[in-house]
């Protein structure tokens, strides 16, 4: 019998030990805030430091030139995660910056419609609200399935009735554990010829992705979450179809176009037209290292482990008096959300951090609408990843039992 393909073998205790050895922070903290910013492995921090040292030694422009081949390899590694070509990838400063660049393609006017879902990422929804206030754009939410998550048939009905300028879906919301049916929405958009934007900031590094099955025109993502890259860098996937239509951001700069004569500009080929000339090459190299690390570990199997750890956390923590699991959906992610009786979740986050456990919270001050929909006053978000182990789960369970019974 032939051996299974690399990256699909069952995860062993030796694998977990190696990943934890590559992640120094696991020796000092129980890091369960990977949906916020995961602990990077050593190859990522080494890549960033090495390039910063080179800039200090020979100069920023010169270091960029010397690292050209490595920078090109970062594009290839990111493309490998999505199963697309390097020319479909634009490097940006964040998922939000990527999302804004994609939104700026469309010349919205009063009465134009954006169809979205009830599970928008907050920054994206704020952009929609700004477009509504400044341009008169109407923002319509598709209905949810009874089990949770967007109903593709509701999207289809809205697309048919409203002919929106754009459909925009957050694949994995930042709260509630949901994984939305982005592929089914993609089929609707392709059939209707409607542009489709996906927020993949919590999906990349957590889900095994073939972006061609999503059938989106744009996918925005960051390095710092489940991809385990550095903060301050992200990327935008741009489909071949979008590039063929010469779509580009409103404010293209000299990274994306050349200026052959006054009164016009000529776009460069590929998704780089969505980039800005000034970028942190050290962070790009760090993101490339994170992508290579994820590919070597095998995203399909590390995703399965992260999801299993989250499921175990839901079962464990829901047995603590005063704790209510908030996750709904046919398919759940590695993000687990809980309402805890008594103190606001932000107070619990600080208390847990004092005990060496990293989590985060959503409060009414940050996102009142989302919390109202979940029927919670605040929520504690716990997000394990594949390098976490039973000691991390024990730590948060024991700490919460202590804090909630004081």
What features would you describe in this structure?
The protein contains 15 helices and 15 strands. The protein is 43% helix and 14% strand. The protein has 2 domains: 13-32 and 298-404, Aspartate Aminotransferase, domain 1; 46-296, Aspartate Aminotransferase, domain 2, CATH 3.40.640. The strands form 4 sheets. A 7-stranded mixed beta sheet has the order 2-8-7-6-5-3-4, sandwiched between helices. The chain is globular. Helix 2 (42-58) crosses helix 3, helix 4 (68-82) crosses helix 11 (281-297) and helix 7 (152-162) packs parallel to helix 8 (182-192). The N and C termini lie far apart (57 Å). The model is unreliable at 1-6 (pLDDT under 50).
């Amino acid at each position: 019998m032939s051996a299974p393909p690399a990256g699909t073998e069952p995860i062993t205790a030796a694998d977990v030990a190696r990943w934890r050895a590559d992640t120094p922070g696991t020796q000092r903290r129980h890091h369960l805030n990977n949906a916020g910013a995961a602990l990077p492995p050593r190859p990522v921090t080494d890549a960033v430091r090495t390039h910063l040292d080179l800039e200090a030694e020979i100069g920023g422009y010169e270091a960029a030139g010397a690292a050209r081949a490595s920078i090109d390899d970062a594009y290839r590694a990111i493309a490998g995660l999505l199963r697309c070509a390097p020319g479909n990838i634009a490097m940006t400063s964040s998922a939000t910056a990527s999302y804004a660049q994609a939104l700026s393609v469309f010349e919205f006017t009063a009465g134009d419609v954006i169809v979205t879902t009830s599970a928008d990422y907050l920054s994206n929804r704020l952009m929609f609200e700004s477009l509504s206030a400044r341009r008169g754009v109407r923002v319509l939410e598709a209905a949810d399935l009874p089990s949770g998550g967007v109903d593709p048939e509701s999207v289809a009905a809205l697309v048919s009735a409203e002919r929106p300028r754009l459909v925009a879906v957050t694949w994995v919301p930042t709260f509630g554990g949901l994984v939305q049916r982005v592929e089914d929405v993609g089929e609707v958009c392709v059939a209707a010829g409607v542009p489709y934007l996906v927020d993949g900031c919590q999906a990349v590094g957590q889900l095994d992705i073939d972006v061609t099955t999503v059938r989106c025109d744009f996918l925005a993502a960051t390095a710092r979450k489940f991809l385990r890259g550095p903060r301050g860098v992200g990327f935008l996937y741009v489909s071949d179809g979008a590039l063929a239509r010469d779509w580009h951001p409103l404010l293209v700069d000299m990274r994306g176009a050349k200026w052959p004569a006054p009164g016009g500009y000529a776009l460069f080929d590929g998704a780089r037209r969505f980039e800005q000339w000034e970028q942190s090459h050290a962070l790009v190299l760090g993101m490339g290292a994170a992508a290579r690390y994820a590919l070597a570990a095998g995203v399909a199997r590390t995703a399965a482990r992260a999801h299993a750890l989250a499921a175990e956390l839901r079962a464990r923590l829901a047995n603590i008096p005063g704790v209510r699991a908030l996750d709904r959906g046919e398919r759940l992610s590695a993000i687990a959300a809980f309402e805890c009786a008594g103190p606001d979740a932000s107070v619990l986050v600080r208390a847990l951090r004092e005990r060496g456990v990293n989590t985060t919270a959503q409060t009414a001050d940050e996102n009142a609408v989302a919390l109202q929909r979940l029927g919670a006053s605040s929520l504690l978000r716990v997000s394990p990843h594949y390098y976490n182990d039973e000691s991390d789960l024990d730590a948060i369970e024991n700490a919460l039992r202590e804090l909630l019974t004081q």
